[in-house]
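= Paired protein data =
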Amino acid sequence: MRYDWTPLWRSTIGFDRLFDVLDEAQRTAEDSYPPYNIERLDENRFEIAVALAGFTPDEVVLSAEQNVLTLEGRKNEKAGKTFLHRGISARNFKRQFTLADHVEVKGARFNNGLLVVDLQREIPEAMKPRRIAIQGAGAPSSQIEARAA
């Protein structure tokens, strides 16, 4: 069962992205093809591995726009094939991953039937925490002296 978030959009300001994320999570739970893993390699590096058995690199499109990574697969089926059993799913798909702020796609590669996408978080210097010196009571302060006219 899908929940319609539209009534909540009317009564909230600035939370549109939150409802989009909830809607995407609900859609993801409904469709689990193709299967994937998300692995944290260290504090700022991640890897998404998507099982794409039977797909070639030219049948897969990977794109990043704003904070959304989109993976689409279009299988080019050849006419005239007769399967006695078809256990390897080769259907068309579209899967989207919502990326956190400042996460960049660094590259993608096929490796043994897996599409591996490398991600890295790069926080701008202006947003990194910085240490601020605290002056004590004995430290000289900088005051502006004014003269009476």
Q: What stands out?
A: The chain has a mean pLDDT of 80.
